[in-house]
Design brief:
With 336 residues, the protein is an alpha/beta fold. Helices cover 45% and strands 20% of the residues. The protein folds into 2 domains: 3-72, Alpha-Beta Plaits (2-Layer Sandwich); 88-331, Alpha-Beta Barrel (TIM Barrel). Helix 5 runs parallel beside helix 7.
Length: 336
């Protein structure tokens, strides 16, 4: 039997044993394990260096989804170095204001009036150019930098929204980590108070997948946020498999239908049926419904016919800078 096979079996036995649930004070406890493996003398001869190699392998095991094991390889050093470099670049970006908030308008389906805009952060990287959220937000979430990043976006959005006409709403995304931040409520209250923005003009978006890890504490947190007058939206709805019972108990005002369903409504009866069902669900729960990712006239027409109240997407408008949005809003006739 080879050494690799022996290691594989040992690691899997350890992970399986540690993953077995157990009861403590009448509560079932579940834990997991990830393992990093380094071998002497192939990987290192000194104990401290061997531990460093095992730690790098452990990090790779966690990055692979946890509950698994990885053996050290020299290429891991390069990947870790690159990741640490990207993390440091993001820290510098926060400190040196390389970030910028863009806004994508949201429209009433009937009349196509702009009623709000979603704040979407961009990174003006000095070497790689303008980076979209998917190119750095996962890193921010992994490293915890999403907390200061999210705080900065919230304050920027509230400040810029004060220049918008009437009751135009600004929407800001909250990550799961922010939901569990003890300072979240104070930060929201501070952002509103500092800028003189009424609570009802701020909408916070929580992804449906984030609700899968919900606790009573987070539900209480959302209720306290709601008490500030802030609106709450469940984002990417239809993709996270949250229970309808849970949805009924959360203080949401808006359902945002994921763009993956909207993209197929013109070609797929299944997608169109799902979209219609979600619109009816929102109506039954007395929530507004926003369809994201509207890119064609046909999609817009179908959504209007199905009774979707609000739409957002490239067909109406791409995300734009704060100045561009300000000019657009200043050219529009006043809403009734």
């Amino acid at each position: 039997m080879s050494e690799d096979t022996d290691i594989d079996r040992l690691c899997n036995r350890i992970i399986e044993a540690l993953s077995a649930p157990f009861v403590y004070e009448d509560q079932q406890i579940n834990i997991g394990a990830s393992i990093g493996v380094a071998l002497a003398p192939d990987d290192a001869n000194q104990a401290n260096e061997l531990l460093r190699c095992a730690d790098i392998a452990l990090y790779q095991a966690k990055e692979a989804g946890r509950g698994t094991w990885r053996a050290y390889g020299r290429e891991m050093d390069q990947r870790l170095h690159e990741r640490l470099q990207r993390e440091e670049e993001l820290r510098v970006a926060l400190a040196e204001q390389q970030l910028e908030v863009y806004y994508q308008p949201r429209y009433l389906s009937q009349g196509m009036q702009i009623i709000g805009a979603e704040a979407l952060v961009r990174w003006n990287h000095p070497e790689r150019g303008l980076l979209l959220p998917e190119q750095f937000i996962p890193l921010a979430e992994e490293t915890g930098l999403i907390i200061p990043l999210g705080r900065w976006v919230l304050h920027q959005a509230c400040s810029q929204a004060t220049r918008w006409p009437g009751d135009t709403v600004v929407s800001v995304n909250l990550s799961p980590l922010q939901l569990h931040d003890d300072r979240l409520l104070d930060e929201i209250a501070h952002a509103l108070g500092e800028n003189g923005l009424p609570g009802e003009r701020l909408e916070l978006e929580v992804t449906e997948s984030a609700l899968l890890r919900e606790t009573q504490g987070t539900l209480d947190q959302l209720k306290r946020v709601k008490a500030l007058g802030v609106h709450l939206a469940v984002d990417d709805f239809g993709t996270g498999y949250s229970s309808l019972t849970s949805l009924r108990h959360y203080p949401f005002d808006v359902i945002k239908i994921d763009n993956s369903f909207v993209a197929g409504i013109g070609q797929s009866m299944e997608d169109h049926s799902i979209v219609r069902a979600l619109i009816e669900l929102g109506r039954g729960l007395q929530m507004r419904v926003t369809a994201e990712g509207v890119e064609t006239e046909e999609q817009l027409r179908l959504l209007k016919d199905d009774g979707c109240t609000e739409v957002q997407g490239f067909h109406m408008s791409h995300p734009m800078s704060a100045d561009e949005l300000q000019r657009l809003l200043s050219q529009l006739p006043a809403r009734d």
